[in-house]
Amino acid sequence: MGKVLGFFILAMCTLICETTIFKPISDSHRSAALDLLTPKDGSFESLEVTYKALRSFEVLGTGKQPDIKAVICKSVVDTLRSPSSASKDLFQALRVNRILKCELNNEAFAGIASRLKDNVNSGGSVGSLVLIEGQAFKVDVHLGGADSVFRAIKALSQSDGRWRYSSNDPESSTFAAGIALESLAGVVSLASSEIDNSLSVFEFPVPIRGFGSQFRHFSPTIVALLFRLICNFQLCSSIKDSSSLELNF
User: Can you give the residue ranges of the Ribophorin II N-terminal domain (predicted)?
Assistant: First the structure.
């Protein structure tokens, strides 16, 4: 009797769970997304727009993507191999490549990493090195002077929690803070040795600090997400068009 009752309770719980699962995205939504986001001429206007569309397909779980990989990958490869590509463009190309996995060998990634490491002066350059680390495991992306990069980013912080986009730009915002904190998290992950303890960005209460010194390595990422959420709720009304945003230090 007990086994039967146990089985009945388990079956009821399973039924209740299945009936309460919320599925906000239907197949019709996915189909509409494909129709709306697929470029009519076979290419997007920029790599940033390309990434946003591909990421939308990925998040929505469309199961398929428009047959435009060849065209996009050509743009990605050309951008990554061009010695004149700005760090911001390299960042967008690497984001697209993370999804499409275009044909690039370790030698190409090593060349990009070398260029970026010689001049780490923007959030895009840090983000690009992090992306290379995830796409080419044998390429050395570690920063020898991570402390100085960390200090340069931290110097842009404001007393109200906002961040400036550069030392020459007085404008500050929570969106820039999110970019800065993500960059700090990237610097920590790329550092060839542990970051100087005196460079802590936040002081956490004693109970939280008790989880160990390694917790601070995750704090930039955690707070970056919080700032991005705040920015989204505020609709970033005071922020410039995202395509023109770059953190320079």
Answer: 25-197
Beta bridge partners of 164: 172
DSSP 8-state assignment for residue 171: E
Proportion of the chain in helix, strand, coil states, percent, rounded to 5 = 60, 5, 35
Contacts 24+ apart (CB under 8 A), 47-56: 47/75, 47/76, 47/79, 47/89, 47/92, 47/93, 47/95, 47/96, 48/92, 48/242, 48/243, 50/75, 50/92, 50/96, 51/92, 51/95, 51/96, 51/99, 54/96, 54/99, 54/100, 55/99
Mean pLDDT of 49-58: 85
Please name which of 108, 100, 175 lies closest in space to residue 139, comparing C-alpha atoms: 108
The radius of gyration computed from the CA coordinates of the chain, to the nearest angstrom, equals 22
CA gap 191, 188 in Å, rounded:
5
- What's the token pair of residue 21? 């699962």
Closest CA to 149 of 108, 119, 178: 119
pLDDT at 184: 86
CB atoms under 10 Å from CB of 193, counted, come to 10
Per-residue pLDDT reduced to its tens digit, 97-109: 999 899 888 889 9
Q: Nearest to residue 241, comparing CAs of 156, 149, 165, 181?
A: 165
What pLDDT does 33 receive? 67
Surface-to-core class of residue 197, CB atoms within 10 Å of its CB (0-12 exposed, 13-18 middle, 19+ buried) = exposed
Contacts of 14 (CB under 8 A, 6+ apart): none
Residue corresponding to tokens 């996915």: 30
Q: How many helices (H) and strands (E) does the chain have?
A: 11, 2
d(CA 249, CA 150): 10
Q: How many CB atoms lie within 10 A of CB 53?
A: 22
